[in-house]
Amino acid sequence: MWDKVADMAKKHWFWIAVVAAALVKQILVIGLPIFAIPSAACDDQLLKNWAFSMASLNWKGDFNAYTFAKEPGFSFFLAVCFRLHLPYIFTVTLGYSAASIVFASSLNKVFSRRLFVLFTYLVILFNPVSFGLYTLQRVYRNGFAMVLTLLVFGGLIHMYFAVLEQRQRQVIIWSLVSSLSLGYLWITKSDTVWVLPFTFTVCVVMLVMLFRKSRNLKSIPVFFCVVFPFLAVFLFSQATKFCDIRWYGYPSVAYYDEVMYDLSHIKSDDAQDKISLSRQQLRKLYEVSPTLAGVEKYVEKQMQKYSKFDTDPDDGEVEAGWSGWALLEGFSKAGVYESCESANAFYKSVHEELEAAFAAGILEKQTESIAQKYYLDTPEHCKELAACVWRTVQYMTSYAHADAQVMRSEDEDALSFRQFEELTRNKVAYARQEHDFVAAGWIVFPECEADKMQVFVEDAQGNQYAKVNFRRSKDVQEYLADTKYAKGNVSRCRFRIGWDGKEGQENPQWYLAAYQEGKETGRVEIQKSGFAAENEVAYTGSLDAYISQAEGEVVLAKSNQVVARLGVISSFYRGLGPVMFWLGIVCYGGLTVVVIVNLRKKRYDCINAWLITAGFGLSILVFALGISLVELTQCPTISEMYLSSAYGLLIGAESISIWKCVELSIPIIGRKVKRKELS
Question: What Rg value do the Cα atoms of the chain yield, rounded?
Fold first, then answer.
């Protein structure tokens, strides 16, 4: 029996190692906390809200300023995980492992030994960006985009070799993998265009191969598979547009793009780097656009708020990367987005007023050449761009900041942390509290008179621990305006309260008890999932957060252990990264020489490795160029959060160059050893 097991293990050693490594990766991230940013209204909070709406089959929920502002792909993924009770970190890590297998196994035809494929897989699998704070822990789209990117490139390479070997069934399978991944990536991140050059080139090469080898009716499905990646982009985009029209009546807000373009292309005598619309320009616009003047106070408030977020928070200006969001939030606060129709009318009015000002010569539109758009208009800009691209690549190879962290979530209003935990089924590492227990949210007892009601935190025996002091709650008042609860304490129903338990209490039950003239009129239990009424008490409310200091300390201790062991891997990559990069460049130079020599001898055994490495390298450069353009013209973008999708390709390019050279060197070294032995 043991002999059979040994034979089977020897026969399937590659897949045993692959699965074992993936299992180790899953174990390593157990207990890793999520990093929630509820204050990111147009990022984390927005996609979280969409996920809950999609889980309830309500697409993106009620119409607002952000309805068409982001791609919905990640929210749909979160919604599916939520409905299937799959933890977010577990699922993304599992998906990344599967994508790493697809990507690395696509190189089977590049190497003659599967050991080199395994090495490549391991380096990609344990890449610290795959479990980093802003790529996996943050409940945002960056980590999920890494999975889709590896599937796109891995699927395309698999398809290329299947076409080369005329395996029609495999062509269909890998076409589906790469196409569906590309289409879904397209509706997940807005900066996916950098993937298209590699996709287009590989598909054109495959079409040429098919025209030369298989010009018959049986090959029609294969031809379709080759162009399917581009069709998938169209289909996914149209599916999103269909849902938007189905729910909101429109696929977008008309004139929004035109207005934003106009606002960011007004000629100014005192133009500043990264500032597309200065505060001084904006104030002049209020004079020529009555529609803009009507929302001035809201826009100015948001511009002041966002001016503190950019590179120079003291200059009062808002960088181009933030100004669009500041304007959008200002318009939203002003009530522009009550409906899609009202937003359409607003932007149309602004557009017509600005165009009239341009036509009258009051404003002058700034023209931009292709060279200016891509920062190539002057020698100085060309040097800056080249230096920024190089800095971007160096940042990636250094694996700077690519590690897991225990980022304690602090928010005075405790908004949405519990919702993030509920959605992801992962824990948040809360900041240490002043009290043993903290609760925050809002609650309304309609049968109580607001000015006579008192609410206390009590235990199961009725012992009182703290009195609840309510704060103003205009949002709740508007939310409950037309309901039976409107007569309750809706104008002051928000609270945040902390209290200490007694020594020796184990798993105590806590309640909010409402009293009026000394008589108890309402009582609800505080549970992790929310409030639970006792004796059919009339109430409505939401528990935004319920924190137990003891439970938080357990989560924090576990999180520190997980982060410590993952930190060992991150440190290893920081030391290995620059070495692999420079060694990869040297090896690629050597591989290029070998390819040229072999081409003269009409040998093509290294050409695929050379071409794939070049394709990966050029894709990374295109991506780095896009990141650098935004860095130089809009806002800081050189970080692992924005660069996450390209790390796998970088490792792939380095690995192919290094291991292919090692593979080519082994026979040469072997022959030299034999000669020495014979001599």
Answer: 29
